[in-house]
Amino acid sequence: LMIPPEGETAESLIVEMKKRQLTVDLEDRKFIRVEGINTIGGSANLKNSEMCILNRMNMKYISHFTWCDDWREGYISGYSPDNVKAGKSTLINGEVGIHIGGRDNKIMNSVIDHSAGAGVISTGLYGYIENNIVSNCGYMGNYVSGITLYREGSTPPESLCGGDAVFNNTVYNCGRNCFVVQSPEG
After folding, report:
1. Where are the beta strands (DSSP E) in the chain?
2. Fewer CB under 10 Å: which end of the chain, C or N?
3. Cα separation, 50 vs 36, whole angstroms
């Protein structure tokens, strides 16, 4: 509900809005280090990235949604096997939580607070998640969690993923799980 200022009508008023899901977008990037940045109201996407680092980040309210196309896995829009195969899944574009994809990417020494979906979701190869504080995530109640290591069910078996290293993280106040490793059938 929007109430226009006095003397204005909905017909005469110009309203501009922005839909922002990402505050850090390193998709398809290599060898980038982002350090010491505070963000509110958006997530990070490292899909198809290589050797990128998020260090000393303070990220709050990284995702918020009240509806899912798939209540188990947490796809928030456009869920279909074809969209997942084409890489159009909301789980692997940073909209459900900070996405660590690609190869040899890291998030460390960071604070991640408030997400309807995951705090951190890793779908790549050799992700490194260390010394983070992840809280108040997964409040939609699906199976993504504070830290989720995930292989999408439709990922071809020959695709490389996994080998993640997760060390010394504090994870609390999460929906169903604080930490989960899953590989659903596709």
Report:
1. 22-25, 33-35, 38-40, 43-45, 53-55, 58-63, 98-100, 106-108, 111-115, 120-122, 128-130, 133-137, 147-150, 165-167, 170-172, 179-182
2. N
3. 20
Rounded to 5 degrees, what angle do the CA atoms 136, 61, 127 make?
A: 75
At residue 9, φ and ψ (nearest 5 deg) are -125, 165
Angle at 80 between CA 82 and CA 60, to 5 degrees: 115
pLDDT digits (tens, 9 = 90+) for 14-63: 766 556 688 999 999 999 999 999 998 889 999 889 999 999 999 999 98
Radius of gyration of the chain (CA): 17
**Under a CB-based contact definition with an 8 Å cutoff, are residues 91 and 150 in contact?**
yes
* Contact call for residues 10 and 4 (beta carbons, < 8 A): yes
What pTM did the predictor assign?
0.79
At residue 162, what is the residue type? G
